């Protein structure tokens, strides 16, 4: 589905037009100072076909853009650059992954978004407000789109970090272990999902700055380096959360064991105290005929006193040992 | 055993013929625009011998193709390319590994499949329907075979992912831990088996695109890059499942410990309650002569009431502490 | 906010002046043997604007310097070098991270510090005391600042190491496990925070010595190598603490389990001893008419003796088995 | 100690002779189409000295060959190649490590075996049966020796894999955990021993194929690549066993915990049942005068019935909860 | 502090002399076939100053040599090579780390040892006994020192390996777990300390053989490769111990759990047996009037017999189940 399409000369918008109007499109493409920027979403192969023929898009790239479920990548097909990025968004308290594919040639840029509600209208507006930057051509648009995609990762990684911090608050709280392990596990899953968007994109971005850069992007390498740097920060944050998560899971297991051990101690202590009481009572409950103390007037209170004293002594000792 | 054999000129099938008919074969090979595509399965060294002589196949490659149990690889022998890939298939609810070896020269391609029911008839059909692609020659056939092999990994990795999700459903279910650890272990084993097919193939594919590419494959690097990209996706999915599996195993252990701890608490609580009852009963079961309460008319109901009250109080406190 | 600003000719300070006085600044910049060193802190984009125009600072670099929350990096923009480093400091017994950004050109160096109380006055003083070194120009100032930043990591890593050693003292102390796991977890978090400052900086420093070095820094590579070496030492120490921490967490879990096991044994032992006493007492508390021993004159003492003997025997055996 | 020695011209054996007979040796060495193959075992520095002088063997290589306890390696000394490989063998149900060192020059190959019963007589025989291969010279002999060494790793890794499978059979068997952890630990130790032979050899083999290859081996790189490929397969199998072992050890720990938890539950259940019985019996064992039920004719059977009913009810509930 | 100093011409000692005698030193340095070898220990900056001036030692290198606490490294300063190595020694049953710094120029070598009792007198003696090797100049001395340092790592790693083997003897011994975890932890700490000496040195040695080698060392690369090889062996041994240690710690935790589980079972068993006895005794201790069996002449022995029989049956069943 077409979102919008416009032609830009020297960074300034010339006109909005329908890219399916081949005459207008042809006129713009024949002007060497002009490039067209076409934004599509949830596109079928049929919708892309006219562009494929006109811009010589490689069939494999078109397949990738329409089929979806690609991993983030940057590929060169001749003098064209084809990029796929993941759009990560919160949907119903879980991370949902969409995609945006960008075809970028000397005088055109086509973006195809799919499976996500995130849009790039703001990117176009901002670009149009800065003609001195936009006049660098399609590769600047590619940068602007990448930058927008990466900027949307920041709040997500922040959210994951603050979730971790929240769990950390209760990690040493007795009795919260079951809840904690569930939340840690869920957090790990989300983190891995985000990581699968970030890690290959970081790898791919290294093709656009430093080393051998596609000719198309040679004037904007500093911008791509900046995106790569932001992404590296996100990646470092993810790795850090991941590492801390692993430690938190171990700490949680330790806490379960410590908690269990405390209960075992308490159980041992009370069981001991009552076992003593029961044993003493059992002794004086025996039916021997010759048990002189049973006949003493103060036998019963003395027995009770003895039992209470022994139990009290045990209680005090267990208390001191930290078992109670 | 021969499956089929045909000669192709400019991407169009010329004729099916027996590769053991040397006259016909020689005629096709002498035509520079023609290549032959021979498909074999479960081949002995004897069956390969005529081709080895005719196409100058290296003895080490022939050995690998007939002996089986190779790891996935791509090797150059002079201007020939020799590739081995793993075919992964579900047999009796377990992963079974077969192999396909492909000899690829300037005017021939020989595929030798072994130890698997998966076949490539569909690949030949699809190639024949697209002569403009098939005219790129034997390296396109090599690509088509690789693509078919890799495409068959997708449902398997999807299956493993959904198995993991299924286990995740019950990972925090009390009492399911024994079952879960068994299933996690089994899943891990399958995953490792798939990984042994995927990881070396990913590595080997890097020889066919980017960097120094065999001359034979120089016109189809973009296709091999696409296969590599699919494989990288599968590999990332495997690594992700693997990482999540490790966390799941830890979470499972935590759950066992949490479950055990809950039982210990309950045990402690009930043991405490009954120990109190027994101790009180033991006290009044003593045989002292001077125990005035034993003579009171309402002594027995009062004692029972006291015991029940104390036990009830304990029960309430344990309940509140979450032990019961 | 401006901290200070001075011009240096051949390593000797010429004068302190306000960098916003464009005439003086222009005069110094026009002298090829002179460079200016401007120190700022917590700067807004507006404060940097005059310098951005005058020194042709790249907008992305200026953005990074004012926005903060960058990861440590070294970037070349044309013949300028832009570096960001993390300042790590103890604030309220926790690690606080600030930043310092340095713009370094052929005849100027601008440092922008933010979010930290750590300052670099000492660096300027020391540089001014060694004109023969300072005459190497702005890249020596860059080195001096880096060296100061890295030198401040040493006491922090030492502190973390000694915290670990302190925990190690009590790691095998029974009953200290809960405290230990908390401290180990806290230490791990601090360590990861320091690591996020050190690891990318180590990586970035490799751009300033060995391999292709920015022209600006070509005369001071040996100094940058020295900083890199210090940093590598810190990094190795961090990795070592990290590795030991992981082992300590495992050892702590083992200790909890060992402690729990000891308690279980003790519980088993005492429970066994009293269960025996209670069982014996219960036997002689039965109301059978024909129990001859109940009538024996020395029946009671004998029974008591038997109970004590059996219990004592059990006690002795449990003692010998190490359960008590 | 000398095993055997022969000269080969164009791949065909010329004669067996004593390498200490310098005249014969000299005659063979002066013929450019001839090379000599000397096999030694458990050699002292003295025995090697004549060859060291004659073939210009480097003193460090000679030291390595006689001292033993080297790690697998391939080193170039001028135009000579020196290789050390580990011989792994089962001795008394444990893995024993021996070594073979090979000096390889343009017209000679000397193999020195030490600390192992494994011999290479079969290698020489097989080489002599294939003169068209052996005529490739000393580097083919080096290949043949390496191939023989690596071929002997296969049954060992197979054995370790089947040991793992055997343990896996009983990993979820209750009560086998102690035995399993012992066997897993033992298996891990053996695996690490094999790995120390395989991993450095894999690394070293990359020097003999692909990249810069010693001149001596340039005609046989395809053979060395084949050995490397076999070794990579062994290495992958080792890593796979290693990874599965780690999971098995975790699964074993989970099983211990699950087993323990089951016992705790059963203990809790039976303790609860008998505590109830004892408490009830204790109640009616009290000596209050006014306990009307004691006087009822059917009091005793009713009490017994009540006790049995309550215990039965508990038993049934515990049964249903899976505790018994 | 000066240890000794001598001049060598063509590998033969010319004379011992004081390096502070500048006339003699100057005479030797002016002879192109002569080099001087100065050995110092625990040196202050002042002691090094004359050499710093004379041999143009870089201030950063001098700082490193006098300050200590460097990580192992090899650095080039112009045509000089500066190396720092760790000396590892047993002091009071713990590993103590000292350092040796070596300045190596075309006609001099200065070694500065600090913080260790290990000395290099034997190295000088051995070198002087082999003039044909020593005539290779200062880089051979550097090699000889490195070789001596590395040779001293071997007994340490052997000691750590045999400590591990000793612990392994008792790893499955019931009751030794507390001791084992302590020893494993201690071993891990020592291992990490050794590793911090070995790992960076291995990395640094790669600069002295293979790839771009400092001119000074170009004639002795084969010797440095040999040292690197020894070090790689030590490193592999360390990694192997480390890996086994991790498994041993896990196995130890399993053993604690297994041990605990065994105790729990035994506790459960005995508690069950005595609970049955107590319950039966409690039944017959009830005070119902109509309990016919109490009046039977053989009631008591029958009751005793029943109790013993039931307990015996339980004992036998628990025994068979492996709980006792």
UniProtKB/TrEMBL annotation, chains A, B, C, D, E:
Its main location: membrane. Keywords: Cell membrane, Membrane, Transmembrane, Transmembrane helix, Transport. SUPFAM superfamilies: CorA soluble domain-like, Magnesium transport protein CorA, transmembrane region. It is found in: Cell membrane. CDD domains: MtCorA-like. It comes from the Bacteria. It is a multi-pass membrane protein. The chain crosses the membrane at residues 267-286, 298-316. The keyword Cell membrane applies. PANTHER family: CORA FAMILY METAL ION TRANSPORTER (EUROFUNG) (PTHR46494). Belongs to the CorA metal ion transporter (MIT) (TC 1.A.35) family. This is Magnesium and cobalt transport protein CorA. It comes from Roseateles subflavus.
